Amino acid sequence: MKAATYKLLVTGLVQGIGFRPFIYRLAMENHLFGCVENRNDGVVVMLNGTLERIEKFRTRILDHAPLASSVDSITINQIESIIFDSFYISQSESVSHHVTEISPDIAVCPDCISDMENQSHRINYPLINCTHCGPRFTIIRDLPYDRSHTTMSEFRMCDKCRSEYEEVMDRRFHAQPVACNRCGPVYRFEAGGEIIEEILGLLRRTGELLSGGALLAIKGTGGYHLVCNALNAHSVKKLRELKKRDGKPFAVMFRTIEEAKEYVVMNKMEEKLLNSWQRPIVLLTKKGEFTEGVADGLNTLGVMLPYMPFHHCLFKEIDIPALVMTSGNFSEEPILISDVAARNQFHEFVDGVISYNREIYNRIDDSVTAVIGDRTTVIRRARGFTPSPIRTRFHLEGILGTGAELSGSFCMGKAGNAIMSPYTGDLKNLETYDFYRESFDRFSRMFRFTPELVVSDLHPDYLSTRFAGELAGELQIPHIKAQHHHAHIAAGMLEAGVEGEVIGFSLDGTGLGSDGRGWGGEVMVTSYEEFHRLFHFEYMPLPGGDRAVQEPWRMGIAYLYQIYGEDLLHLRTPLNTAFNDAQVQQIIGLMDKEINAPGVSSAGRLFDAVAAITGLNFYSTYQAEGPMLLESAVDPSEAGSYSFEINGSLISFRPLIRKVVDDIHHGISAGNIAAKFHHALIDLMVHLSLEIKKSHGLNRVVLGGGTFQNRYLTKKVIHKLEIEGFQVYLPHEIPVNDQGISVGQLAIGAHHRNK
Ligand code: ZN
Ligand code: ZN
Ligand code: FE
């Protein structure tokens, strides 16, 4: 075959992870001449050779690509002949509006950890990185990914770093944030008037403070953490008071997997997830009680491993095997990234602020994940995942999904990719909304995104819905609204690449239904285009509206009153013991007079009611506390179940609640009751799936909504449905909770546009 010049276009996640040097080394090994270049639309490789050799080269790229990369496609085209007498890496140039991907932040690699002990200019350098690891998304201002477009632009490389950066065979070849003790950003400790910048002194002081029970603010990859010794209940209590977070569990960073294993159980999949380059928080089952105040009442603990070089340095210095690391903010505001703001806001509450002088440009929280059965799921999609796209086979270009309210997010369609924003927190205050808007502006610019169609929730009061309306008005583009539970199922369908009709179980706290009422226990036959609500949970009054969400005891009374009427006063449940007749009468009054007691068909509220009746939770201090406590209470040795009633399209849990009360009267434990309750929901889903299979001939089930973060329920229902021959889909890249709504909206928008 004749030699010619070929152009290879590599698309996917191929920038910022040492891809060009990898191509260079591959070309050297194969004695090929040509060049490689980063472009907006991917990595372009030009090579002289026969088509046969070029195709072999293509295979080698696919087989040996760097760990954190992900190649979508490699196209080969013959071009006009160019004479090359070597192989080189050429300067990036902006060529088009088709943007390639931006790498998420990558945990420090083992080679860099060893360099911290061996490379003279990087001994203990706590911001060490290389082409395989280090900050990416958090420091990028624009594409293409070059140092001048990152927050490292203000640091001049020293000669040593420069020579590594330019040496193709070096691991830091074209590592944009490359730095060392001589030329890079540095850490700084501040407490009162005390300032330490020398790293060993800084680590020693930090260690002393943590061992003494102190609270510290430490700058992380995507924002500040508030940190204390996870094994010191007194420190944890102080931290909790500072965060104004009554019961919301804290995540814990363990020094090593082995030390974590003393406190939690983990299987191979969980271990792999903990150790992955994303280094997310993984929800793991506790072995026994952990330090009071960290995750009280829950059977799980959110665990992560060190991911910044500084974390490794710190754990070397201290005797403490575990640190609470919670996002640095007060109550529900976004995580702080500004050094000035951190100093101002934290200094009077903490015993020291530890920062470094490299700016965090893009804010991001730690991600939260869990293994359910044999599936890995993302619960909070952020660091390590953002902004990797979710690849689909649909045409999504120009569509924007603006998400819901709780666990906010937006999602942009670029070609076949769904690009999700990071988790922005609950869109209920101005600070969170500002973060959302700022992220939107930045994503639009970085990804060269121009909205052509915007899709929002039905709820008129969500900030995300209003934003959609404003944007549509401003740009004169269509705005459509997708029903919340339809979007939950569509998100799962999109990720699985499923088309046609499916059986959808959409179970969550709440979302506005197309009848104007609050939904959340929905069984629907769903396609992207439409949904048919075949069954739903019975509407139950929410006495006090939103207050009933914060106070599950009200939900308990609501259920009992619907079933027992005034006789509920004579029941002997923990709920009856905890609240006096006057309190109960007041709630009854709201329902009788129908004052602020709207009916909802919510699964979350059913969990709340059972958690309240069994005495597990009367007041909710964080979202889904009742359901989480109920799940944690499950006694797995209990095999029994409860019954439910189906009248037409209505699913009633009245018989179930009666049995719960009977069991309480017979002294059955909350653990057994919780297990039977979960089993009843599983039986219900299996029963309805079989019914719909009969009536509609459908065999595929998609699970959506926050209820499916319940590991016990989800694992079992998938298992049982699979035994019955159903194909069951649970999203794993997209959060099953409301953060995933924006993706479902995108899917609905795409199919709406096609019609
Ligand atoms: Zn590295
Ligand atoms: Zn240097
Ligand atoms: Fe939802």
- Which of globular, elongated, flat, extended, rod-shaped describes the shape? globular
| CATH architecture group name of the largest domain | 2-Layer Sandwich
Structural class: alpha/beta
Biggest sheet record = 12 strands, mixed
Low-confidence stretches: none
Beta content: 15-25%
Number of helices: 23
Helical residues, percent: 25-40%
Round the Cα radius of gyration to an integer and report it: 27 Å
Can you tell me the CATH topology of the largest domain?
Nucleotidyltransferase, domain 5
Provide the residue-averaged pLDDT: 94
CA distance, first residue to last residue: 48 Å
Bound molecules: zinc ion, fe (iii) ion
Classified by CATH, the class of the largest domain is Alpha Beta
How many β-strand stretches? 32
Number of domains as seen in the coordinates:
4
Instruction: Name the CATH homologous superfamily of the largest domain.
Output: ATPase, nucleotide binding domain
